[in-house]
Amino acid sequence: MTTVLWVALGSAVGAPARYMLDRLVQNRHERVLPWGTLVVNVTGCFALGLVVALTSGHDTAGWLVPLLATGFLGGYTTFSTFGWETMRLTEDGAGQAALLNVVASVGLGLGAASLGLLAGSW
Asked: Does residue 4 register a pLDDT over 70?
């Protein structure tokens, strides 16, 4: 049961952090692409790679990964919003923007996770 509390605590901080960063970025970029969601998800991928690298093979406190990786980053990143925004772009006739959103999100997300793993392994 304690693990559930760590996850809940992390997500209670991660979700508002996502909302605030998304709004900050999106309000500065009034464009078709959902830049806020892209920035949130890419930074979350980097952070998850970093957390995994820093905790793998090390004797870390049992609450750390549930708090940071599952809780905070689970609440911070948002695959569902990415999917919804991509579908909205498609429905609005912005097929090229939708495709760009998918390619950029997946490509940059994987790259950021790799960089996080690399940075954490130094």
From this structure: yes
